[in-house]
Amino acid sequence: MVEYSTHLNAVFHALADPTRRAMLGHLAERELTIGELATPFHMSFAGASKHVRVLENAGLVKRTIRGRTHLCRLEAARLAEANAWLRRYERFWNAKLDALEALLLEEDKAKKAKE
Question: How far apart are CA 4 and CA 62, in angstroms?
């Protein structure tokens, strides 16, 4: 259980940063070099490499080094674990949204009755 919690902590820490989330989005399309990951953000190789290291530590990215090229690919298994954890709480969100919908429908009925 502790290992599972540690993995989730690392995943949510990695996902907390918008740059890293965007990098994962790009990696969902195809494998990219660190230089290619850095380009949209106008950051240095070193800066992008730090973000990739966080993603690697969370198990979200696998880096392969070929000569001087660092090629990165998405590892989605950890995202699936995070999604499974979040889905446990989905029923609470749905209940709140259902209650809000009922309240709004009731409010609409009351407005129509006044007209």
Answer: 19
Q: Which fold has domain 2-89?
A: Arc Repressor Mutant, subunit A (1.10.10)
Tokens 């950051």 locate to: 43
Structural tokens at position 58: 């969370």
Find out whether 54 and 13 touch, Cβ atoms under 8 Å.
Answer: yes
Packing angle of the helix pair 2-15, 77-87 (nearest 10 deg): 100
Q: What is the mean pLDDT of the chain?
A: 89
Where exactly are the structural domains of the chain?
2-89
> CA distances (Å), 86 to each of 8, 41, 75, in order?
11, 29, 18
Identify the burial level of 36 via C-beta atoms within 10 angstroms of its C-beta, where 0-12 means exposed, 13-18 middle and 19 or more buried: middle
Provide the pLDDT confidence category of residue 108 given band limits of 50, 70 and 90.
confident
Q: Which residues neighbour 74 within 8 Å (Cβ) at sequence distance 6 or greater?
A: 24, 27, 28, 60, 61
Q: Which two tokens stand for residue 23?
A: 């990098």
